[in-house]
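Good morning N.,

You mentioned wanting to compare the apo and holo forms, so I went ahead and generated the holo version with (2Z)-2-iminopentanedioic acid. This is what I fed in:
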Amino acid sequence: MKTSLTDFIENLRVNTPMESEFNQAVEEVISSVWDFYLENPRYQKAKILERMVEPERVIMFRVPWVDDKGEVQINRGYRVEFNSALGPYKGGLRFHATVNLSILKFLGFEQTFKNSLTTLPMGGGKGGSDFSPKGKSDGEIMRFCQSFMTELYRHIGSNTDVPAGDIGVGGREIGYLFGQYKRLKNEFTGVLTGKGLLWGGSLIRPEATGYGAVYFVQHMLNRIGKDIEGQTIAISGFGNVAWGAISKINELGGKVVTISGPDGYIYDKEGIKGDKIDYLLELRASNNDIVQPYAEEFGVKFIADKRPWEVPVDLAMPCATENEVNINDAQNLVKNGCKLFAEASNMGCTANAADYLAESIDYAPGKAVNAGGVSVSGLEMSQNSMRISWPREEVDARLKIIMREIHDTCVNYGQNGKKVNYIKGANVGAFVKVAEAMVAQGIV
Ligand code: 2IT
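and this is what came out, ligand included:
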């Protein structure tokens, strides 16, 4: 007897009852690929979907370290090696107090599909810790990274699993993690991406997620005869992704009027440009995780404890974290004239907000929009394997091609009359590749 979509989702909920983010991510993907799955008995016979929702391996470990006061601290470390059908596990590490197994399973699951879209040979994985870098000294961060890697190193490798950064893990943390890996293995290899430029990193990697997201938006706009020039844009977050997106939007003549942090949002009517963009780097390096100092520095409005989705804009690009846009936010955006919504965060919308936006305006999901980051990570792996460094122009040109191909895939699988269903396009386009590879590789 065949399973129905409802049964499949219900079974998953029963199997993973405590994992709401993971269930949410799976439900979105499964709902859009279900008809396609039913049309392909080969996939059903091989139980492709049942296998896809089970990570190949989950590693959980203790991370003990000593803080500046000499007190012993214990955190929990994770690596979810989700799917290696298309290549070595690939995906970031997140260090944040909210990290748990559900969040890393959702991110690893999403990453598998995102990486499939990039056209590069990468499987999907994700990891991290509930360690919060907020307010920690440099020495504390280094000792934590070293302890984390002292366990992780035995599970990863340049042909096995290649972690990178995510929230709370940037160039500094990748440096400490890489140093410890090299020391333990006595091997200088491309085992992590997002490395410094002097020791194997790729040009454009820091900018890649934001740049890629804007290239994707350009394709969405061009398809309907529009351009970024002159558009007013709301962005959330103030980290690496927001910074890259704001830089590229300015270069293309658009205006970003908001950024946000856990403390509230900034409304900068004149636009975040010039020195203000550089100031974002300072703000992030301060390690305080608040955005309010921007308002004091530039004499603009700070709205405490609110999200930027109440500001009237033409386009919205969430660049912070999962479920940062709910149905009320989505309705506000549309009511205030927002015409296009491109998720640069992973699963930035709650399920009903995503459905509402997809029905109302042009909406594209994170796995397509933000895939530029991991794409340039893939290019960093290629450069490491060849032991060369490409110039900026070469990396940027490749990133542009990849984002165009991801957009083409979305249109190819998601076109519905004059509209494109980007959720379906991204999910089915990504699924086909992973499914075919899994069928070819047998029951493993
Ligand atoms: O969500 C993501 O795609 C990332 N955090 C980047 C992963 C990577 O391997 O560069």
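The radius of gyration is 21 Å.

Happy to go through it together on a call whenever suits you.

Best,
F.
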